[in-house]
Amino acid sequence: MYPIQIGDKTFELYLEKEMISKRTRLLGIQLNVDYEGRCPILIGVLNGSFLFMAGLVKEMDIACEVSFIRLSSYEGTERSDSVKKVLGLQENLKDRDVILVEDIVDTGATLRYILKEVYRQEPASVAVCSLLLKPDSLTEEISEIKYVGFEIANDFVVGHGLDYNGLGRNLNSIYVLTS
Ligand code: 5GP
Question: What order of strands is seen across the sheet that includes strand 145-151?
């Protein structure tokens, strides 16, 4: 497999776009079944979730709403210490069925912070749907993580919404850092 260059780093193919779209389709179908008649609100965490969210909702045919929030916790390939503020969270989540849509859950710190903010509004239920999960990196179990596309090793990946210093989000497949 040919390596690709993104900025100053080299990456190689990790998850092919066909695998990602098949898995996304299955998750969408599962959400159709699990949320039938409930009109959930899907809340994507920007920027990374935009492609996964688009793929997911295109597979859903139940009534649902789509919204996005934004924050960031990474610079380059290193984890920064603090999670920043949640921006754009709607104020009307009371009694709603919320599905948080993430590109990746690494340590889980970002997600725990977002969950705390969401629970303040007393939603009826909260579930997390993440394209990727790094189980070895997760510092404590998060019971809300009910839908996962792929469990991956503790490596740095880009593509399908995920970036390296702002680059690579547009790639359909997912690539892993080699050097
Ligand atoms: P956590 O708070 O779970 O440690 O980190 C979550 C955030 O870190 C993700 O939303 C993502 O922005 C970033 N992140 C974690 N692992 C990776 C990775 O392998 N690649 C990229 N591009 N971002 C990552």
Answer: 65-70, 41-46, 97-105, 125-133, 145-151
